[in-house]
Design goal:
mainly alpha, single chain, Four Helix Bundle (Hemerythrin (Met), subunit A)
Length: about 140
């Protein structure tokens, strides 16, 4: 069974993704014009990435290995440990790239890319959560 920490983090991720989905506008043009929707979506995407990084750190700690040096490396480590697939690791590393732009260079955000993330790639986070939960249930069952 998954640990309480992991379940709490997964619940937080689900809430963030639900918030993004509920605020996804019908077009990129609407997104470009609505500052409130921009803020809600970017904040919840940033939180989603951070929660996934936190989950990765929690899982890596279970293997008693050194902490990853970067957020992106966290997902490589999970891939190497067999927790997530290589494709999921790559997609999560891309999400970290978005998070870094969103936090450090907010004025340079390409809203078309954000729109593609929220309409085509929220499933990446769900895949990550499913794979981690599946791993956790397999590891902790006895």
């Amino acid at each position: 069974m998954a640990s309480m920490i992991l379940l709490t983090k997964l619940d937080s991720l689900q809430r963030c993704l639900a918030r993004v989905a509920s605020k996804t506008p019908p077009s990129v043009e609407v997104l470009k014009q609505d500052l409130d929707i921009q803020d809600i979506i970017t904040l919840n995407l940033e939180r989603s990435v951070q929660v996934c990084v936190d989950i990765a750190a929690h899982v890596v700690a279970e293997f008693n290995t050194p902490a990853p040096a970067t957020m992106a490396e966290s997902f490589d480590r999970l891939r190497d440990l067999g927790v997530i697939s290589g494709e999921t690791a790559l997609r999560m590393k891309n999400a970290v790239g978005f998070r870094n732009v969103s936090i450090h260079e907010y004025q340079k955000i390409d809203w078309l890319i954000v729109y593609r993330i929220i309409t085509e790639h929220l499933g990446d986070f769900k895949d990550f959560a499913r794979q981690v939960l599946s791993w956790s249930n397999g590891v902790h069952e006895e």
